Every structure is written in structure tokens, then in C-alpha cells.
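Predict the assembly for these two chains.
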Amino acid sequence: MREKVEEVLEEIKPSLRADGGDVELVDVKDGVVTLKLTGACAGCPMSTMTLRNGIERVLREKIADIKEVVSVQ
Amino acid sequence: MQRSIAEINEKIRNGQAVVVTAEEVIDLVDEQGIEKSAEQVDVVTTGTFAPMCSSGAYMNLGHSEPRIKVGGGSLYLNDVPAYTGLGAVDLFMGATALPDDDSRNKIRPGSFDYGGGHVIEDLVAGKDIRLVCTAYGTDCYPRRKLETWISIADINQATLFNVRNSYQNYNVAVNLSDKTIYTYMGVLKPAMGNIAYCSAGQLSPLLNDPYYKAIGIGTKIFLGGGEGYVAWHGTQHNPSVKRGENGVPMEGAGSLAVIGDLKQMSSQWLRGTSILGYGCNLTVGIGIPIPILSEDILAHTAVRDSEIFAPIVDYSEAYPKRTSDTVGIVSYADLRSGHIMLRGKKVPTGSLSSYAKAREISAILKGWLSDGEFLLTEPVAMLPGVESGMVVRPLKERPIVM
């Protein structure tokens, strides 16, 4: 699953990078994807919504087995 | 140097107009100076893409058989309530409207997954929208209940009418308290954990026309991916604030009411937006062409982020209590660098307004003008300027004694 997640993240990254943000994959374990938002996303007041309504939504749409997407600082 | 809009339009028609974005004009002025640049450039395009809460759309549904009087009744689109205090089948959907059963902030922070802004985005995207309406019934409008799917193609009119958009500058938000707060400026971490701002800065329309000498009522604009117009000055339009030597307001100042046909817009540029712990919104894309009618107008479009300043305001106490205290003043160049120093601490910054999308809008509008697809309009009246004396007053409460 890790490879699939990485693949989808590569599709998402350009839109984050356009505004100076980025995302790193930290871990995939038992359907839980752990991400780290970096760059402009780190200080962004909307990063929670970017994670939930943006990254998580796309990951869930494309990978059925995902149970949860969490972020670490 | 003087130039008229009619002369510029003639050049646009002939494919000879020189159009640059509000970013490009900065370099041009650096290289050639104001005078030469003003002679060369006909139009400067601006752009902004940010959550703009006083947005909404009015619609006319067409009459059902038998007829129903929506006016004075209740109407929901995808469970989000619309305003029905209009004619028989007219309604208004506001960007911040929420379903009655949304849990809001009962358990903080509420997620506000779907609201009026999302309905507008879905409508523009051509999706089917579930309409549920109840009415009280009259002799001429006997029907009392209507449940149907509608789409933007089915209804007579769908018009975006945003009463306050494209704010000219805005507060920069910080949280001085020891707990996380959830605001319309996004999530603010405790003890100055982050800083939020919301402006396209040097690309933002009214920051490029600080005294409203080019943008007026009737100016044709890029609105939500289609064509729209400036309809009026926006609510809370406040030209009388403190300005820098370059004329640029040092805080929230002018604003625009804008209008346009939703049917020719795109959901790419009108996005329903959820703000954690705060509510729903609509993120709107706006681009405004600034005709270079004089050297003065050109000089203002060459403003850069390092010359635009905004006040830093504490949203844990000063903002909610409406005190005028500010924590400091900061330039958009510093904000855009990713962090600023505040009270000896390095604080990361983040923007609700997408500079990348603002840049894209200014480039699209440049393309429309360069291709001769978009002609400028002459304002029919100018926006109230400094000379108007217009100010925004707080609410004066008067106790109701029964």
C-alpha cells in the first residue's frame, strides 16, 4: 500500500507546491497513513482542512483500504 | 501621458494592446521607469483567489405545475437553507449558510463539511441539487410542498452576487493566548504558534488601484472563471483608513460588490470551503483589468509586496473584544517569506489566499485581453474614495426596553 500512497501523493504535491507547501509520507501501517505537512503548509492556518478535505479525500477515493490519515509535526 | 478606454479597446480589437500582469509590471518599471512603462502598457491585470464570506447566488427556479409560492416559505438545496423572502420562485443562497442539522460547534471544533458555498460549487459544476420546499399556499399559488432535483441548466437564472469581495488589504492574525483558537482566519496555534494572512498583496486588485481611479461601478472583470462586473462598493467599504506614502491602505479598506452569470462560471474558480471550528465559505477567483489611463495609475500598479503593510492583530482577545490594539505591522514580502520575527520569536506564516491561483487568474485575464476576447468597460460611476468621507462605524447598541 505504501507504494500506492506515494503514487497518489505525487499527484497531489504539485498543487501544494504551487503555494509553497509540501507533504512527506512518514508511515503506512494497518491502513493508517501518517503524513508530515511541510513548507508553507507547516504554518498554514488551513492545513487541517488541506489534510482532511484535500489529501485524505483524494487518498480515500483512490485507495479503498485506507482507514485513517493523520499528520505529525 | 493620457489614454482613454476607447483607445485601449481599439487596440484590444486589433490584437495590439500591451497587457502585463501586476507582477510583470514591477520588473518593467524597474527596467524602464514609470514614464516609459506608462507609454508602453495599456492594461495591467490583477488577481485574487481567497475565501470571501459575503458571497452568494440568487436564482429563479421557474414555476411548477401547480404553482408554489416559495416566497415566505422555506427552501433547502442539498439540505442547506436558502433565503426565500423574495418573489414566488426566487431565492438567495448565501455562502455561509449551514444545514439545520449541522452540529456546528457543539463539539469543538466543528468540521462544517457542507454549506452554501459548497451548494454553489456543486451547482456550477453541473451536479444535480436536491430541492425541498414548503409553502403556506394561496389561491394563486396553491401548492404547499415541492421536492425535486434541479441543475443549473434547468433553472432560469443563477446569478452570483457577492456583496463584499476583494478586500483592499486585511488583518494579519495571531493568537497570543495559551490555547488553540478556531477563527475565520483558520486555526491559530497558541503562543504565536503561527500567523495567518489573506491577501494576494501585489497582485490584489484594489491594492493596485489604491484610490479607485481605474476600477469603478460597471468595470468588467474575471469572476469565478467567467465574466462579471463590479456592481457597487462592497459592504464595509472604508476608504478613510490610514494609508502609506504610496497611498496603499495600512489595514482593511475598500471592498467590491460583484455580480455575474453563474451559468458561465467554473467550479475551478468557485470552491466551497470548510473552515475548522468556524463555518463554511466560498473561495472566489476574481481578476480585474486596470486600464493605464495615466502615469499615476501605472505607478500604483507597480506596487510590490515589500511596500504593502498590514496590521498584526491578536484574534484571541483584541479582535473578539473589538479593541484597536495591534501587535505590530508587517509587509507582505515578509509574510510571503514563510516566517516573521515577532516579539523575538520566529513565527511561521501561512496564507488563506492562494498567490499561485491569483497569478494564474491574472495570466488568464491577460490572455483574454491579448486575444481580443475581452473588452474593457467604462465605469458608470466611481467608487467612494477618500474624498467621500465614508467611514465604517461599529454597531451602536440601544437597549430595548419593553
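Helices of chain B lie at 5-13, 24-40, 116-124, 295-301, 318-321, 332-336, 355-370. Chain B has a mean pLDDT of 97.
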